[in-house]
């Protein structure tokens, strides 16, 4: 409704702010480490948060309660969360700690928003997934990573479509134009 903004914080709280008064009107607690990513649902009734405690949570905006249980993602750190346009799925990305001294890469995991069950795991990034965006039609998910790449994924088959490798440092943010035809990215390489 344009009257509230939500943000994560270093103390593990998700904070809801009133834009007119510039004051915190609610604090949602449950994460045990920094909340690195938040996403509003399209209808404005839910917020998805991802934390460096390796979990993601859905919050009911009206009462501040968690919906379902916390999702233990399998990521060491969760740095990117986004709802699908129809709000039935959640994409969650982050950093996966190396195993046996080897970097196993970092994945994007897709979860059912109603049940909290894992739907798919998208593998390809070799470092932390830092940002996610879903096209308006829900057919393509886009991920940006600390491995300097942007990857596009077909959400009907959960397969990688393309790898974009123009950045020379971490991809920090991505956004899709309203008509779905332009992808913008921002990187630590200052481009």
From TrEMBL:
WD repeat extents: 1-27, 28-69, 122-163, 164-191
Is Repeat a UniProt keyword of this protein?
yes
Q: Keywords of this protein's UniProt record, alphabetized?
A: Repeat, WD repeat
Keyword Lipoprotein assigned:
no
Which is a Pfam family this sequence falls into?
A: WD40
Q: Tell me the InterPro entries matching this sequence.
A: Quinoprotein_ADH-like_sf, WD40/YVTN_repeat-like_dom_sf, WD40_PAC1, WD40_repeat_CS, WD40_rpt
Q: Which CDD domains does UniProt cross-reference here?
A: WD40
Q: Which protein is depicted? A: Quinon protein alcohol dehydrogenase-like superfamily
Please tell me the species this chain comes from. Suillus subaureus
Organism lineage string: Eukaryota, Fungi, Dikarya, Basidiomycota, Agaricomycotina
């Amino acid at each position: 409704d344009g009257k509230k903004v939500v943000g994560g914080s270093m103390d593990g709280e998700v904070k809801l702010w009133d834009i007119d008064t510039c004051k915190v009107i609610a604090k949602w607690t449950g994460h045990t480490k920094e909340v690195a990513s938040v996403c509003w649902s399209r209808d404005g009734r839910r917020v998805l948060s991802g934390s460096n405690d390796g979990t993601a949570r859905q919050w009911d905006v009206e009462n501040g309660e968690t919906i379902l249980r916390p999702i233990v993602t399998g990521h060491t750190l969760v740095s990117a969360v986004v709802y699908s346009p129809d709000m039935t799925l959640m994409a969650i990305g982050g950093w996966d700690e190396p195993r046996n001294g080897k970097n196993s890469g970092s994945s994007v995991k897709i979860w059912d928003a109603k049940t909290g069950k894992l739907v798919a795991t998208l593998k390809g990034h070799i470092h932390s997934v830092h940002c996610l965006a879903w096209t308006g039609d829900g057919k393509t998910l886009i991920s940006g990573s600390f491995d300097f790449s942007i990857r596009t994924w077909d959400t009907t088959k959960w397969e990688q479509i393309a790898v974009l490798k123009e950045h020379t440092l971490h991809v920090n943010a991505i956004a899709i134009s309203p008509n779905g035809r332009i992808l913008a990215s921002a990187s630590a390489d200052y481009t």
